[in-house]
Amino acid sequence: MFVVSACSAPGIRSGSRDGEQVTGVRNAGTGSHGGKQHVVVIGAGLVGVACALWLQRAGMGVTLVDRAEPGSGASFGNAGTFATYASAPVGTPKVIRGLPGMLFDPAGPLSIRWRYLPKLAGWLARFARHSTRAEVERISRALHLLLDRAHEGYAPLLRDIDSASLVRSKGCLYLFGTDAEFDAAAADLALKARRGVAVEVLGRDAVRQMEPAIAPVYAKAVYFPDATHTIDPGALTLDLADLFRRQGGRILCDSVERIEVVDGRATGAVTAGGDIRGDQFVLAAGAWSKTLAATLGDRVPLDTERGYHVMIPRRDVVARPVAWSRGGFYLTPMVEGLRVAGTVELAGLKRPPDPRRLRRLVAGARHLVPDLPEPVSEWMGFRPSMPDSLPVVGRSPTVANAIHAFGHGHLGLTLAGITGRIVADLAAGRAADPDIGAFAPDRFRRFRLG
After folding, report:
1. 50 SS3 class
2. Cβ(153)–Cβ(49) under 8 Å?
3. Burial profile 122-161: b = 16 or more Cβ within 10 angstroms, e = fewer
4. For residues 391 and 439, is the Cβ–Cβ distance under 8 A?
5. What one-character-per-residue DSSP string does 230-269 give?
6. Is 403 left (phi over 0), alpha (psi -120 to 50) or beta?
7. Nearest to residue 51, comparing CAs of 434, 436, 412, 359?
8. How far is CA 77 from its chain centroid?
9. CA distance linking residue 92 with residue 55, whole number of Å
10. If you placed Cys at 75, which of 71, 230, 350, 394 could pair as Cys (CB 3.0 to 4.6 Å)?
11. Do the beta carbons of residue 262 and residue 295 sit within 8 Å?
C-alpha cells in the first residue's frame, strides 16, 4: 500500500519522536521574539527545514509551517543520494529527441501522461529551449556553483545531530547494460569531468568485487567515489526538524492558502487557523510553491516530476546506491531494506499513482538482483521541477520581504543545506555566496527565455 504521512491538528510532532505537540504563535512578529527579526518558512521538507536552521544560526526567530509532518513528502521518498556529481540538467538534446516516445511508453523511465499534455505544453516548450548544447553547458556551470558547496551547506547542521548513524560515504555506481549505452553517456561524463567531478570507469570484475549480489547484466559502470547517501532521508529530516525545535523554533501544522501582501510587503501567511505574521517570509513549499508564489504576484513555470519507490525487505543486497541507467532508478540500502526509487512521470499533482511504474521498478530490481522478495510498501511523490533544471532561489521581484527557495527537482536532498545558507544570507541583508543570478525567480521574464 502507499505510504501517506500527515500531522496532527492543531500541532505537530515536528520531528520529535516523543510525541510532543508544538502549537506555535500565530501573531509572531518582531515583538514576540525579543526584538529579533522573525521569519516564517512555508514548507517543512528538507529545504524548508535547512532554511529554518540557517535562519536560526543567523540569530533570527523562525516559525516553520506545513500541512504535514516535516520530511513527509519528497524528502521522505527519494533515493537518498547526495548527488554532488549530478551537474547535468534533465533536458539535453538526447532527451528532446526522445520526447515523442515518452507519450507511448507510460511505464518508461521518463513518461508523459496524455491527459496532462495540454497543461504541460508551456513547460515543455521552455524545457526544449533549455535543452540545447549551449544551454546544457550554461546550466551545468550554474548547478556546479551550488553542488560544489553542498557539503559545506550541510556540515554545521549535521554536526549538531547524530548524522553518523544516518549518512554513509561509500560512493555511487551507475551501471550500463551495453557498451553502446556507455558510449551514449560520453557527453554527460565529459560534462561532469569539466565540472571537476571525480569519475572512475569500471569493468565487470571491479563491479563484481564492489557489489557481488548484482547479476552480471552490465557491460561497464561509472563510479563516483565522492558521493554520499543517507540510509533514512525521512529520519534525517525529522532529526534536523527536532534540532530546530529544541533551539526554540516553532513548527505549526496548517495549510497555507496564500500570502497576504499589503503595500508591496508580505504581512502574513493565511491559513485555516489564522494568519501567521512575520517580518520576512520564505517560500519553500516544493511542488506546491507555484500557487503560493502567484499570491505574491510572481509567475514561475514550475511543474512536477512524479517519482516512485518500492521498499523490499532486504538490507544486505548492496553497500551503496547503484543506479541502472536503462531503467532510470536506484537501488539504495536503507534502514528498512532495499529502496528501489526513481523514474520521472510528468502528470501533475492530482492524478493517482500509476501501478505500472511500480511493477516496472520491481521488475528492474529483479533484473539486477534475481529472487528479491515482494515489496512491503509503495510510494509516489512530487519533485518540484523547473524547465531549466535550476532551482528558484532569491528574493521575490515583486515583494521585498519574501524569499523563494523551491524547484530543486532531483536535487532537493543534495542542495537543501546550501540553499538554507543562501536564504539566511538574503534574510540578513548579506550578499549571497555563490552568486545566485542564474536562480532568480524572474529569470524567464528577464532573459525572455520563457
Report:
1. helix
2. no
3. ebbebbbbbbeeebbebbbebbbbbbbbbbebbeebbeeb
4. yes
5. ES-HHHHHHHHHHHHHHTT-EEEE--EEEEEEETTEEEEE
6. beta
7. 412
8. 10
9. 36
10. 71
11. no
Provide CB contacts within 8 A for 374, sequence distance 6+.
Answer: 312, 362
Question: What are the grid coordinates assigned to 214, written together?
Answer: 548484482
Are 273 and 58 in contact, with CB atoms under 8 Å apart?
no
CA 404/CA 283 separation, integer angstroms = 5
pLDDT tens profile 5-30: 345 432 222 233 333 333 333 554 44
Q: Report the C-alpha gap between 40 and 274 in whole angstroms.
A: 14
- The DSSP code sequence of 314-334 is -SSS-SS-EEETTTTEEEEEE
Amino acid of residue 227 = A
What is the rounded CA–CA span in Å between residue 428 and residue 176?
46
Grid cell digits, residue 354: 500509476
Contacts of 193 (CB under 8 A, 6+ apart): 199
pTM above the 0.90 mark?
yes
**Cβ–Cβ under 8 Å, residues 257 and 264:** no
> pLDDT by residue (tens digit) across 125-171?
999 999 999 999 999 999 999 999 999 999 999 999 988 889 999 99
**CA dist list (Å): 162 to 78, 149, 165, 390, 431:** 21, 21, 6, 31, 31
Tell me how far apart the alpha carbons of residues 322 and 320 are, in angstroms, rounded to a whole number. Answer: 6
Over residues 333-347, the pLDDT tens digits come to: 999 999 999 999 999
**44 exposed, middle or buried (CB, 10 Å; 0-12, 13-18, 19+)?**
buried
In angstroms, how far is the first alpha carbon of the chain from the final one? 39
- Greatest CA span in the chain, whole angstroms? 66
Rounded to whole angstroms, the Cα distance separating 71 from 414 reads: 14
Q: Is 117 helix (H, G, I), strand (E, B) or coil?
A: helix
User: Residue 248: how many CA atoms within 13 Å on its side-chain side?
Assistant: 12
Mean pLDDT of the chain: 91
Give Cα separations from 311 to 53, 95, 172, 239 (angstroms): 30, 29, 19, 22
Residue (of 259, 254, 287, 300) closest to 400 by Cα position: 259
Work out the angle at residue 319's Cα, subtended by the Cα atoms of residues 336 and 194, and round it to the nearest 5 degrees: 120
Positive or negative, the Cα torsion across 381, 387, 388, 392? negative
